[in-house]
User: Fold Magnesium transporter from Monoraphidium neglectum.
Amino acid sequence: MGAILGLAILGFSCVWSGISTQVGATVAIALPLVSAWANGLGAFFTLLADRLRFDPAVTSVPLVTTIVDSTGLVVYFFVAKAMLGINE
Assistant:
């Protein structure tokens, strides 16, 4: 899903002059990475909770959502920094 949406945004950025193709490419790369990251973290925390004998449903929504939102932004900014050639 992330790859499909990323390619759609890349295509949209090529057609519409309001978004540069660099930004479209950045989103096209970052979106699948963040989607894979979210799936991996969701599976990890659910399995960890089950292993520690907690209810996996309790950890899956609030904890994973918060962690994925915050770390997903970090992943996006690292991709943007690399794609756009931003130096510190």
